Amino acid sequence: MAATANIKLLGTTSLAGADSSNDNALFVEARPPAMGQDGGAFSVAVPVSINLANWSSWPQTVAWFRWIHPFRTCLMQRVSIGMLLDTALTFTSGTPSLFFEACVCRNVLADPDSDVAGAPTAINLQGTHHDQKLRTSFSPTALSSATNSALAGTACVSVTTAGTMNWSPFNMGLGSQGSNWVSDIQHDGTLAGGLGAFDLNMNTQAAGTWPLGGLNAGLFRWLDYTGAGMTPFQLSRNTALSIFVNGGVTMTGTLQMVIQYEWMEVAAY
Amino acid sequence: MALKLIGDVSGYEADVSADKALYVESRGPARGTYGAFSYGFVSNVCDGNMTNTSNVFSIVWTAPVGVCLIYRLRVGLQNSPTTPYTGASPVQMDVAVYFARGFTTLPPNSVSLRVPSMGPNMFKLVPKSVASRVGFLCVTSSDDMGGSYSADSQPLARQSGWLGTTAGFQVNGGPLVPLVDRTGYGQYPVVLAQNEGLIVTNPAMVNGSPATGGWEYAVNIDWVEALSY
């Protein structure tokens, strides 16, 4: 490093200290991770309206975040979920509970097919050059590298008005690449675990109800790695985060779901 | 002052209580004579004139130098205690926050807007700091507050809620919910450069806008102004 850094202490050179706490503390500025070249911090939230009657086979993938950039590392700091019943949930049969699970898939070489029934809708980060940046001077997210599609990852959420989705960690329409990816968990269709998991009551509930609970339930910070000393979830090339639901319930109703991703893109971590 | 480190030369942990530690206190960003600020306000009673996708709150940084670091933005929404919406069924009232870049025209200062007076000590958390350089800050109670800018196609965050039909009903189950919360360890704040801002909208009223009665927004925002970041 060419420049010489001077450490400056708040306080005097005597042990008595000048600050009120007499601690002679070294004050440092709390900063986010060093980003390196082409780094940045981003946030996006996408709502989807889900016809719960279409959740008739299990499991169902509801969100998908795939990272394929070869040089940058994606630090997923927080994934939040919001849920609100647009119309009443009517429990029909089965066991009225759902497991929401976050699954890490590695060596994912393709996105879900776009031509299957209930195909996912990619979050459109390519509308403008600056979409979702927390600071305009950042480089564009690698999820929106419209000028170089070979480096562009994807973030998708499901739309289910068209019927049952045919893509999930268990049954993704990945075309010729479909057999290459591996999941961190051994999936047999009845699992209940992953990077994160929670159980949700899907018994009859009135319209306007938050299935996730009341107070401050607007966005449930589910996968949250922002605590002091915590290491964020790192996605390297061809790693994907899949959020899916699993259960045996049959129901009707309309659920508005919001998926929010907050992430950083860094040269190394 | 000699630096004292946790641990000794053998690699074993030292006895911290014996002061063999370097006390490091994590602080907010270096801001020089600039300051840290916080402000919360409530709107007038909104009514059926407010349509889908109206902007209900805006903060715009217009200073040519320095940056505005937004760490937290919390929003509350309740049915008016005095002139409530009392329709037959609740209506959905989401709130979403968008990054708005390239303001060319600020919203007009009309009677429906609540724009705080920018006094020299407004919002200050640090009494000795200079006055805030925020160029525009308001919450509206009528229709779209206006202004010319380019908003992102997707929100930074969005909350879904329903406006109940009883007076004082709190839409999100509590007085304030965070739309932007970048206070976690290692999180990068939202950084506003000149003529950039955040806008809060009501993006969807699935069952239509209430024709009668009113509701109120509350917005609380915490930010730091710095020469650079």
Keywords:
heterodimer, A: 269 residues, mainly beta, seven-stranded antiparallel sheet, 0% helix, B: 229 residues, five-stranded antiparallel sheet
Short description:
The complex is a heterodimer of chains A (269) and B (229). Chain A is mainly beta.
Would you write up a description of this structure?
The complex is a heterodimer of chains A (269) and B (229). Chain A is an all-beta fold and 269 residues long. Chain A has no helices and 13 strands. Chain A has strands at 26-29, 40-51, 60-67, 73-93, 97-106, 121-122, 154-157, 182-183, 196-201, 220-224, 233-235, 239-247, 250-266. In chain A, the strands form 2 sheets. In chain A, strands 3, 5, 6, 7, 8, 9 and 12 form a 7-stranded antiparallel β-sheet that branches. In chain A, strands 2, 4, 10, 11 and 13 form a 5-stranded antiparallel β-sheet that branches. Residues 1-23, 113-121, 145-151, 158-180 and 186-190 of chain A have low confidence and may be disordered. Chain B is 0% helix and 39% strand. In chain B, strands 3, 6, 7, 8, 9, 10 and 14 form a 7-stranded antiparallel β-sheet that branches. In chain B, strands 2, 4, 12, 13 and 15 form a 5-stranded antiparallel β-sheet that branches. In chain B, strands 5-11 form a two-stranded antiparallel ribbon. The relative contact order of chain B is 0.36. At the A-B interface, strand 1, strand 2, strand 4 and strand 13 of A face strand 1, strand 6, strand 10 and strand 12 of B. Strand 1 of chain A pairs parallel with strand 1 (24-27) of chain B, so a sheet runs across the interface.
